[in-house]
Design goal:
With about 270 residues, the protein is α/β, with parallel strands linked by helices. The chain has two domains: about 200 residues, 2-enoyl-CoA Hydratase, Chain A, domain 1; about 50 residues. The chain is built from 13 helices and ten strands. The strands form two sheets. The protein has a six-stranded mixed sheet, sandwiched between helices. Strands 4-6-8-9 form a four-stranded mixed sheet. Helix 2 links the parallel strand 2 and strand 3. Helix 11 runs antiparallel to helix 12. The longest helix is centred in the C-terminal third of the chain and has 17 residues. The two termini are about 30 Å apart. This is Enoyl-CoA hydratase. Belongs to the enoyl-CoA hydratase/isomerase family.
């Protein structure tokens, strides 16, 4: 089964620093089995530890991002893994320090929706549809959809999405702020790569710290989040040496930046 899961979760790592994870079970609309979820969790753990990987793109093959959990695996997933953080895809994505870009290529349903919400940036194809079927099938959410969605699009819209189980099309998702951009299907992956390349141009250490402070602060009341920013800024600057400040000044002045060498065809 492990070998099958590896075929159903494809990984490409490029010398540019970009890694692409593709859910590759298109005939089943990329419905997620327990082995696939375990493999996904392992991959996010592994890629987070790889110094050469700077940005991760997550997408699906075929006409769906993911139709959610394969119903044949429902018992094993919902009862067996809900408390197992090592096998919990969403938990490992939340722990991942690298920026994660979701390229939503089609249907994005329930567990697939929850995985998408865990990405840092979302780009959607015009064919994308977001659907929460927890209420329809009697599944209790455990990967954060009931809490994250309302914080992204507001509680009234979130209640409409989750209590009706009706689809949200890509254009509406963009209007509501659920996704960053909507593009034609043929442009989806290139757009995600372009965003990744823009991230790669920046200072890596600060990129990771900036992601962390945005995500960690978002979970706190506003006043506590501001306090957390101050604390981390103090720690950051307290740890800087004179040569670090000099390098920063040189970079701002444009004296230390060198043209990047081409490292990949990506």
């Amino acid at each position: 089964m492990a070998e099958e899961a590896e075929n159903q979760i494809q990984l490409e790592v490029f010398s540019s620093g970009i890694a692409i994870i593709t859910l590759n079970r298109p005939k089943a609309l990329n419905a997620l089995t327990r082995d696939m979820l375990t493999r996904l969790a392992e991959l996010f753990q592994e890629l987070d530890q790889r110094p050469a990987v700077k940005v991760i793109i997550l997408t699906g093959a075929g006409r769906a991002f993911s139709a959610g959990v394969d119903l044949t695996a429902a018992t094993a997933v919902f009862k067996g893994d809900v408390k197992n953080q090592d096998k919990d895809t969403v938990a490992q994505m939340e722990r991942c320090t690298k920026p994660i870009i979701g390229a939503i290529n089609g249907l994005c349903i329930t567990a697939g929706f929850e995985i998408a919400l865990t990405c840092d940036i979302l780009v959607a194809s015009t064919t994308a549809k977001f659907i929460d079927t927890h209420a329809k099938f009697g599944i209790f959410p455990s990967w954060g959809l009931s809490q994250k969605l309302s914080r992204v699009i507001g509680p009234h819209r979130a209640r409409q999405v989750s209590l009706t189980a009706e689809p949200v099309d890509a254009q509406t998702a963009e209007k509501w702020g659920l996704v960053n951009r909507v593009v034609n299907p043929t442009e989806l992956l290139d757009t995600a790569k372009a965003i990744a390349k823009a991230i790669l141009k920046n200072q890596e250490r600060m990129t990771l710290k900036y992601k962390a402070i945005i995500n960690d602060g978002f979970r706190l009341p506003f006043g506590e989040a501001l306090k957390l920013e101050k604390e981390r800024a103090y720690e950051y600057y307290a740890g800087m040496k004179p040569e670090d400040f000099a390098a920063m000044q040189d970079f701002i002045a444009g004296r230390s930046s060198k043209p990047a060498k081409p490292t990949s065809k990506l």
